[in-house]
Amino acid sequence: MAVAEFPLPDVGEGLTEAEIVQWRVAPGDEIAVDQVLVEIETAKSLVELPSPFAGTVTGLLVAEGDTVEVGSPIIRVESDAAAAGQSADSAPVADTAASAPAPAPVASAPLAPAPVAPAAVAQAPVPAPAAPIHAAPAHAAAAPAPAPAPAQVAVDAGVVGTDEGSGAVLVGYGSATSAPSRRKPGARRAAAAAAEAFRASSREVGLEFVTDDGEATTADAVAAQGSRPARPTMPSASALQVMAKPPIRKLAKDLGVDLTIVVPTGLAGEVTRDDVIRHATQATVFRNIETPEWGDVRQEAIPVKGVRKAIATAMTTSAFTAPHVSLFVDVDATRTMEFVKRLKESPTFAGVKVSPLLIMARAVIWAVRRNRSVNSSWTDREIIVHHFVNLGIAAATPRGLIVPNIKDAQDMSLLELAKALEQMTLTARDGKTTPADMADGTITVTNIGVFGMDTGTPILNPGQVAIVAMGTIKPKPWVVDGDVRSRMVTTIGASFDHRVVDGDVASRFVHDVASVIEEPALLLD
């Protein structure tokens, strides 16, 4: 047995430090191959670091909340594998580990993992390895996985190392290939338990379902048949309690939403995922209902680190480097709201979240095609005009503002764009957005309307020359054919880098975006 100290790796983001968020092990713990040791936070994302081999934890060298430089030792492990590595190399494992490159992390996924998309893997900044990369040994795949942290179950993990005997390193948690993920036994048990919980709640409230042939049935019968009901029927009058499936209840708990005050829209009066998300979005500004007391503490000091430090650097750089110019226009969005309603009722969009943001995103892509210079990047020597659209969507998360982007959004259909927006939103809300998701954006949309705001002057995302802000949509008096009528009105705001975008181009671009919001039929062009 030998003791090795493992350094904090470079997780492939080009960063120099990270914060220790939570240790998943303690001194004396027996650990297995690929078991998550620690969760770290960089300026861009949360990353889980697994153990490269089994052994016993003999010491945690850094406390939770501390910021550590890359290469600094963070944990001490006693292991036979470490001894073998030292014997083969005649050098401490820690020395080799410090110099070995690590692949880019793949952020952990929700309970039912999906395969890592090849495009996403290609986008991740992976440094060139010093030696060939080999697949995980067979015993690694069979190693028992530790109990995951609440509300966070990672994707199937792989052990990525160099030639045998070169020394193990801590790497970002996730699969090293794009092979399809397999649901682990624990996930299957959790899914079965969730299904049984829903059947039990269905029996309790008298919830019935109607099959495709019109016959009434129960959740137990549906489960036994292995089929999915066409629609649920209304429960009896005595069942006046909140009806929601276990995953919806968990989502509400994670978002801090009280299900008893959510307006349900399900066919049987049950609360749906969209209901919870809509309520959480609308209540964001007013979430702190109770006004806290001032207290005895006169002031507090909040360390500037992680995402907040990255935001401060980016906003300062943008505000004092790019000369901003902003434009605003009020728009009659009545037809957009009608279009959104029709899409929600369309079988093609069944189960897909549709909102005015989808039409705004499509409008921006359409307007970019007509005004290419707004989709550019400035350098001191040249202006780079992008002939593709990596559409950034500003997202407010518990960790702060992030701007993931949809790659090659110009090639997507409206349905594909809707699915991409929904997945991006859920990933950001779960804190699983990866650095690759936020890299290489070309233009950004920020939806401040969800906070009840009419408009604002958005600051450019560094490296981009245009950003569009969408305000709230609400009834306002509007002149139509000489008559004052109530119409659904919004305000579109946009900021531009005046070094690249002249006033006439900026005006045409905003006008084009507004034209689509006013008449979505232009998207048929």
Set out the fold topology:
Blueprint (H helix, E strand, L loop, with lengths): L1 E6 L9 E7 L6 E2 L4 E6 L4 E5 L4 E6 L6 E3 L3 E7 H10 L3 H7 L18 H6 L14 H5 L42 H21 L2 E3 L5 E3 H7 L5 E2 L13 H10 L17 H10 L23 H16 L2 E9 L1 H12 L10 H15 L5 E3 L4 E3 L5 E3 L1 E3 L2 E3 L2 E2 L7 H16 L5 H4 L4 E5 L18 E5 L3 E7 L2 E15 L5 H16 L7
Parallel strand pairs: 15-19, 19-20
Antiparallel strand pairs: 1-8, 2-4, 2-7, 3-6, 4-5, 6-8, 9-10, 9-11, 12-22, 13-14, 15-18, 16-17, 20-22, 21-22
Sum up the structure in keywords:
7-stranded mixed sheet, 22 strands, globular, 525 residues, alpha+beta, 14 helices, 4-stranded antiparallel sheet
Structural class of the secondary structure composition? alpha+beta
Question: Count of helical segments?
Answer: 14
The overall strand count is: 22
Distance between the termini: 70 Å
| Chain-averaged pLDDT | 74
How would you describe the oligomerization state of the chains in this entry? Answer: single chain
The low-confidence parts are: 87-169, 171-188, 197-219, 225-240
What best-fitting shape do the alpha-carbon axes yield? globular
Largest sheet: 7 strands, mixed
How big is the Rg? 26 Å
| DSSP helix fraction | 25-40%
The fraction of residues in strands falls at: 15-25%
